[in-house]
Amino acid sequence: MKIVDVKLGIQSGDRIYKYPVWLEFSKGRIWFLKAAFALKDEIKALKGSHWHGRDDDARQIWSALDCERNRFQLSAMQGKNPYAWWDRPVEALEFERPLRAHQVTMVEHLMTYHYGIIAAEMGLGKTLAAIEIIERSKQDDWWWVGPRSAIVAVEEEFEKWELGTKLTLMTYQGLVKVMKEWKSGAPAPRGVVFDEMQRMKGPTSQRTLAGQALADAIREEYGYDGYVVGLTGTPSPKSPLDWWAIVEICWPGFLREGSRNQLKYRLGVHQTKPKRDGFYYDMTAWLDDDRKCAKCGGFPKGAALEEGAFICSCGKYTQSINEVALLETRLQGIALPFLKKDHLNLPEKQYREIVLKPSKTIQRVAEQLAEIAPTPIQALTWLRELSDGFQYTEKQIGTEPCECTNGQTTPPDCDCDCDLCNGSGVIPIMERHTKMIKCPKDEAIKDLLDENSDQGRLIIFAGFQGSIDRVRQICLDQKWDVVQVDGRGWKVFSETPTDLKPIKYWRSDAARVVYLAHPESGGTGLTLTEARMAVYYSNDFKPENRLQSEDRGHRPGMDLNKGFTIVDLYHLETDRHVRNVLKANRRLELMTLGEVQDAL
């Protein structure tokens, strides 16, 4: 047990007020034995904060976890500068490898600070910059973690640049397994590259917890001599809150807020709403415009309103601070943003929509599905399938013991309340079948194949495995080979057998090849500049997958004269609805990267 007497300060306006505090470090927690009431909000912002006034011992004190993040924040509250490491000037380096100016900036930044995130849009050469960092570290023990498609692309880069450093490659699923089997005292790698780091944006997901554990182990063993390098083209695709977990992995405590929810309260306007056992806080607006009211999120009377905005009605209009844009300043040092438009002289992507009128039969079926669906989400899923020309059906092919039986082969004679088996002890084994339905998207795909016949390469994305199976058959019938990438793996479909790996086959001298992928499985990391068009037969619901996949062909190496075209196929209204959802928060993400203009 250790008790220390310190002074903790809080800033109010231009002044800092300091208060005496007694801290006890014991049982893995920091106990605030004496603390002024004015420090309550600062203490509540610490990770694992808890008020013990209602506990059995009835001590009227606060405590928080004794962890790296909280020690970082307490250091700042004492008037020290825990950010001093990132306040140092960037060290200038000399280079032999031909790098662009922005890649030089990436390398110099990470070689100076060792812990950080390169938040660069797709096509800006993050992978080569990371390779340069690994080589310049002169350390042989590095891990590279990323999604499967990014690992395929990285292996190509390693081969191209003849990387000689020992490197362990793994997917995020592989990282989860490795960290679960991690033995206490095992040596940590000197450095790790988290490719497509936005995959760890969920604070409680297994991959995020595994990434946090690995980064913590590197810091504990090597301190500032270790390396945690994050690479991402879409750091906050759904909301600015997506920054919290990936910054926490790089360096706990860099952001003051002790949780994603606390960051949410800072970046938005919340109102209390009643529920059965009390109330909850509901976000009514982002603080993304300093004209908004800090109380209700509404605009002052007479302001030009965008879609979804509203006029202040609380009667206490108070001008707010654009906290979303301010986040870019708060991330300086740990995050290095790069926008494609500032560093690459590429033609703008061209967007085209092909609107296909549904038949009266399809319209009737769509209305019936929407009517009988048990939930809105189920209705949307069914309609998306219908729009793609198929419907999933499930057929029972057997049964298996429920989890509640602990593996017994005979159902127990009991009145259990299990929600899975409803007390029967067995659950059905279902097999999914795909029923194909006539769809006008088929003819649109054939026309686009013809349009790209001279190019000999075309990229197509689809949001369901049933859609991918349908499109693959269309392509094969039109005498196009297919490189298929989805949750079932990577595979080449061709009349002529080949031993080439899928990505090698795409780059081979085969006459006509379609790269057909699910946006999540095959939409990240790869360079597919052989094509001049990407077609979205359908989308999934993850904004980062759309943003990443669009740029597979729009990057250095593309044909500048032909440009790059993005084509969306719209059949039922659900296609456009999903696309609009994906667009919704792009403006907020760019704002956190220092770009305040509207996007898309």
Outline the secondary-structure elements.
Blueprint: E1 2-12, E2 15-26, E3 29-34, H1 40-44, E4 50-51, E5 62-65, H2 68-77, H3 84-87, H4 101-113, E6 115-120, H5 126-137, E7 142-145, H6 148-161, E8 167-170, H7 172-180, E9 191-194, H8 206-222, E10 227-232, H9 243-250, H10 260-267, E11 268-275, E12 278-286, H11 323-330, E13 335-338, H12 340-343, E14 350-355, H13 360-372, H14 376-387, E15 390-401, E16 426-436, H15 441-451, E17 457-461, H16 465-477, E18 481-486, E19 489-493, H17 502-506, E20 513-517, H18 519-522, E21 533-536, H19 543-550, E22 565-570, H20 573-583, H21 586-592
Question: Would you mind describing this structure in some detail?
Answer:
With 600 residues, the chain is α/β, with parallel strands linked by helices. It has five domains: 2-82, no CATH class; 86-255, Tandem AAA-ATPase domain (Rossmann fold, 3-Layer(aba) Sandwich); 262-330, no CATH class; 350-357 and 438-592, P-loop containing nucleotide triphosphate hydrolases (Rossmann fold, 3-Layer(aba) Sandwich); 391-436, no CATH class. The chain has 21 helices and 22 strands.
The portion of residues forming beta strands comes to 15-25%
Q: Give unreliable regions as ranges.
A: none
- N-to-C CA distance: 56 Å
How many domains make up the 3D coordinates?
Answer: 5
Q: Which whole number gives the mean pLDDT?
A: 89
Radius of gyration: 27 Å
Residue share in helix: 25-40%
Largest sheet: 7 strands, mixed
Shape, per Cα inertia axes: globular
Query: Structural class, please?
Result: alpha/beta
Per the CATH scheme, the topology name of the largest domain is: Rossmann fold
Total beta-strand segments: 22
Question: Considering the protein shown, what is the CATH homologous superfamily of the largest domain?
Answer: Tandem AAA-ATPase domain
Number of helices: 21
Please identify the top-level CATH class of the largest domain: Alpha Beta
Read across the widest sheet, the strand sequence of neighbours is 14-22-21-17-20-18-19
CATH hierarchy: architecture of the largest domain = 3-Layer(aba) Sandwich
